[in-house]
Amino acid sequence: RSGEMAKLTQLLDNEAFRAYATYATIVLLKMMLMSLITAYFRITRKAFVNPEDTASFGKGESAKKYLRTDPDVERVRRGHLNDLENIVPFFGIGLLYALSGPELSTALLHFRIFTGARILHTLAYLIPLPQPSRGLSWAVAYAVTISMAYKVLKTSFYL
Amino acid sequence: RSGEMAKLTQLLDNEAFRAYATYATIVLLKMMLMSLITAYFRITRKAFVNPEDTASFGKGESAKKYLRTDPDVERVRRGHLNDLENIVPFFGIGLLYALSGPELSTALLHFRIFTGARILHTLAYLIPLPQPSRGLSWAVAYAVTISMAYKVLKTSFYL
Amino acid sequence: RSGEMAKLTQLLDNEAFRAYATYATIVLLKMMLMSLITAYFRITRKAFVNPEDTASFGKGESAKKYLRTDPDVERVRRGHLNDLENIVPFFGIGLLYALSGPELSTALLHFRIFTGARILHTLAYLIPLPQPSRGLSWAVAYAVTISMAYKVLKTSFYL
């Protein structure tokens, strides 16, 4: 059993894979943060979607008025969905890329640019910054994922 | 080739990784179940979103009236999206956690609490149970994921 | 270090795992394509959701009229969300399945049917084709994922 354990841990001895584990965890945590920001805006703006969430504000009509949409809540939710649409492919393609034996420096470059671009994307969405800040940060992270996908397909192509 | 196969299968000989594979599959299946529940409510409530889905109900205005939102359908869809927002980070961070060589008992504790909390979350959302049932089950699963992320970063940190 | 690298690359020497890496990358790229199609329809239909996205069309009321929903944009977005709901489980369960030592021919059958079905699903959603094209292609991909989940649980069950 200790032999197997060693083998598993070896995966995390590989520096490119460790870098992947670190950056993938950071962007997934960043995505999870969007839930907290949504909750913060729902509570401060008093804008809920489920009747059971407004029960503490009283009964009947007095609680019903908090069942409404709020522009700030909707903005965070759009940022959250955009994270799902882009961080899921990064996680999946990035994992296969990290297993495809990339140069450490090249791998770090991909992971760092993606992570930086997605943090900028969130800032550009939430502040919000004027365009094309959000569009550009989205496109940079997208291009990094495409570049990793190209390496995965080049290394492992088997249709 | 049989040597490689053996090595691959060894990953699933590791008990913490097997536990991860089991619980990750269970929560992903639970998430997939939301699609079936959505379809069930769309059909029984006759509430569709695509015109081509109502063609069997007749033509023109008689079919158009089924292009509408229904509170039960929307509730399941919110539960489904919440699953995506929380089960995706569990899958990703949990995979890296399972590869970071955790104690089997600690790993099992994380996986079991997360899975139980997310099943409770779905029940609390769909029945629905009064708050804070849904909020608490969400928070417990969230905290488990954060705890695994901490272990991953402690083990593999490489910026 | 070169010994570890060799071990990592061995994962991609396994043919079933290489097939998984190829098909998983293809369906993730297909999912990413939905972002580009959404952007294309938003720009050609002039239908935006963020005020900062319409700033280039002028100020005040002249720009505000482009903050609207468009049926084509909404259709692509529904297809994108459906991809997330179905391709995420395929990626996760498929990864564990590829590690569970499946027969190469059986694995290829699963990956090919899933990928074909999801491409058909996108075509059926976007053209759109009359039902049950979209429903059937969804169900076939769903069944493939369930079949892989069964194999994972049979191989690695550890509650």
TrEMBL record, chains A, B, C:
Q: How does it sit in the membrane?
A: Multi-pass membrane protein
From the UniProt record, list the reaction(s) this protein catalyses. Answer: RX + glutathione = an S-substituted glutathione + a halide anion + H(+)
Q: What is its EC number?
A: 2.5.1.18
Q: Name the residues that span the membrane.
A: 20-41, 87-115
| UniProtKB keywords | Acetylation, Endoplasmic reticulum, Membrane, Mitochondrion, Mitochondrion outer membrane, Transferase, Transmembrane, Transmembrane helix
For this UniProt entry, what's an example GO CC term?
Answer: mitochondrial outer membrane
Q: Which GO terms describe its molecular function?
A: glutathione transferase activity
Q: Report the locations given in the UniProt record.
A: Endoplasmic reticulum membrane; Mitochondrion outer membrane
Q: How does it assemble?
A: Homotrimer; The trimer binds only one molecule of glutathione.
**Per the similarity annotation, which family is this?**
Belongs to the MAPEG family.
Primary role = Conjugation of reduced glutathione to a wide number of exogenous and endogenous hydrophobic electrophiles.
Which protein is depicted?
A: Microsomal glutathione S-transferase 1
Tell me what organism the protein belongs to.
Halcyon senegalensis
